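tool=predict chain=A
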Amino acid sequence: MPQPMIRHLAIFARDPAKLARFYQEVLGMRLLHSDPKDKAFFVTDGHVTMALLPHRLEGSAPVGINHFGFGVEDAKAVSEKCRAFGVEEPKRRPGDRPYAEFRGVDPEGNWFDISEHGYNEVETQDDRDRKAAKV
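tool=predict ok
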């Protein structure tokens, strides 16, 4: 199996729109997707996608990095390695969430996503299931 690569990270921000503009204007990142309902922005350098998520005071997570994501060829193999290491097996994410299919946790409690689908295309599991049903 090829080396898994970090392809995605998520940051809770007080002003995700301003942060998205910063990364675009200052560092040349490209806006990949924005979600007007959630007020989330996704920017990319062509390799790593950053989710800039709105921080809510009533939420349970602080401002800053929330999770990061790995692009992998075989999510089941990664899940088995997690279990063998003694950490909880990654869980399937809700079908309406774009990008990653699974969420895991490292021994220190840091969240990470794993995705066979990848982070360069905005597509939910529901979208992928609908495509598969048409075939």
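The domain at 5-134 is CATH 3.10.180.10 (2,3-Dihydroxybiphenyl 1,2-Dioxygenase; domain 1). Strands lie at 5-13, 30-35, 40-44, 49-54, 64-71, 91-92, 102-105, 111-115.
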